[in-house]
Amino acid sequence: MTGKLLKFALAAATLAGVSACTSAPPPANVSGIMPSPYIAEGPVRTENGFLRGVASDQAPGITVFKGIPFAAPPVGDLRWEMPQPAADWDGVLEANTWGDSCVQNPAPQRFPVNSATDMSDSPGISEDCLYLNVWTPATTANTRLPVMVWLYGGAYNEGGGSSPFSHGDFLARQGVVVVTFNYRVGSLGFFAHPELTAEHGASGNQALGDSIAALQWVQDNITAFGGDPSRVTIFGESAGSAMNAALVGAPPAEGLFARAIAQSGTFQGLNIGTMVPRETAQQRTLTAAQENFGTTSLAELRALPAEEVHANLPGQGMIIDGHIIPEDLAKVFAEGRQLPVDVLVGSNEDEGSFTGIFGPPATLESWNQGAGFRWGDHVELGQAAYPVSTDAEAAVTATQPFGDNMTWLMRQYAEQQAALGVNAYHYYFRHDPPYDPDRGDLGAAHTGEIPYVFDNLCAPRTFPGGSSVELMCGNPEEEAFADQVSRYWVNFAATGNPNGGGLPNWPSVDELGPNEVMVLDGDGSGVSEWIGPLKAELYAAIYQDRVATPLGIE
Predict the structure, then answer these.
(1) Can you give the residue ranges of the Carboxylesterase type B domain (predicted)?
(2) CA dist., res. 181 & res. 167, Å (int)
(3) Dist. CA 149–CA 91, nearest whole Å
(4) Sequence-distant (≥ 6) Cβ neighbours of residue 482 within 8 angstroms
(5) Do 137 and 61 contact (CB within 8 A), yes or no?
(6) What is the pTM of this model?
(7) pLDDT tens digits, 132-161
């Protein structure tokens, strides 16, 4: 028996023991259907109707429920509305097929391939896309396991809850219920329009509304799958991490989750800056609509095919919409008015390595010419933090500010949560995974931590961190590191503390020195040096100029 299968067997035995002691009588008979007390046998009763899942084809003991509607299809007059309740259904819904992904660009319009749409088993693409998926190791509804809800990345323009890299089979085997869901992307998910604002007092951030609806579904239904609604952790990467952090500052999300894990992104996005106001986003919408469709009428825009809307109207990402995000979240967090939830946040050492593939390598001349654009009034600080004297040094250094800026933002996020008196942990992912010989080595790249978080090294990767599936799948060293990282995440979801089970000690952010961070690395995880005082001083100064001063943050 392999190490992973042995771990599965032990987990299954433990969960079976818990379930045997806590099994409850089945729910009341509804419409002549009598559910089994055992989740795997089904059907399971939700507020909208009965579901039957399927056995995982990857991890013994896991039941998977695919394509569960958590909101009404956002089509017709519901296009650009906040999600409405899902309709009830009669009989038993066989939850064995992924719901369609939201409208986005598949290959060849998207290069490289889109992991949400271009795999051999990818679902279709449609505007009717508000579906979620559940992986559970529980045998009965009374198991009360922690719940982890994933928000995918994709620059606010792509992604899906059925993407293979985020399948929850192996993570669920560690004793959590895993939920993934689709949210609207591009101009169908981030759309501000004055007619919507006049009707609702707000517009934009429909994707955040989808996220809140999915989390409300979890609160209403997850006990039926063996989950504990009081121990819900949201986790996400890149755009999903930014949305995740925004939900921590969103009043309508209060009470829907207890913890948040943010991987490479905060409410500011991936770079230091203020949030876009609704009025600016509305004007961009009207300008593009008039130029591309000859109309700004909401009704006429709703009548257009969704694919044309996606292609010709700008998807603007998160904005200050006036409801979910009433004001710039930098001010909310600085003043301690965000939700007091535990957080585990961080980023990767080589986040910006993929930027080197766009255009020619930086030279000493081009690096120096861009100093004012990068550093504003802090060119001297920037040059001290990033000393460059040759073309070769410039080519290497040019990709570093992207990641250094991001890790500074993540540290600020952790410290702002810690100031509320909740648990807060900061990591720096330094592990360099193997890459195929014909592919450039991007190091600890953007998205590179995801296979380890999901303990899912054999799944296709998502852009840009395209580490080698062949060299990692079944590799004992890589599997051991994936086990470590995923156990940190699961421990945090269960208790608000990543430590336990013999893992290297992870201090809270309050216990770290100003240039210390928790490094995650297959060669040895533990507290180590962070980015250095000169870089920290530089990004603090840029934040003051670009965010704090304009917003009046003390």
Answers:
(1) 44-358, 410-517
(2) 11
(3) 27
(4) 451, 452, 455, 456, 457
(5) yes
(6) 0.92
(7) 999 999 999 999 999 999 999 999 999 999
